[in-house]
Amino acid sequence: MTAPTSTASTSPAPVLRFAPSPTGLLHIGNARTALLNALLARREGGTFVLRLDDTDRERSREEYAQAIVADLAWLGIPPDVTVRQSERIALYDAAGERLKAAGRLYPCFETQDELERKRRLQLARGLPPIYDRAALALSGEDRARLEAEGRRPHWRFRLDHRAVAWTDRVRGEVSVACDSLSDPVLVREDGSYLYTLPSVVDDASLGVTLVVRGEDHVTNTAVQIQIFEALGNAVPAFGHHNLLTTAGGEGLSKRLGHLSLQGLREAGLEPLAVAALAVLVGSSDAVRPVASLEELAALVDLGHVSRAPARFDEAELAALNARIVHEMSFEAVAPRLAAMGVGGGAAFWEAVRGNVGTLAEARDWWDVVAGPVVPVVEDAPFCARAAEALPPEPWDAGTWKSWTDAVKAATGAKGRALFMPLRKALTGRDHGPELAALLPLIGRDKAAARLAGDTA
Ligand code: GLU
Question: Can you name the CATH fold of 380-451?
Answer without folding.
Answer: Arc Repressor Mutant, subunit A (1.10.10)
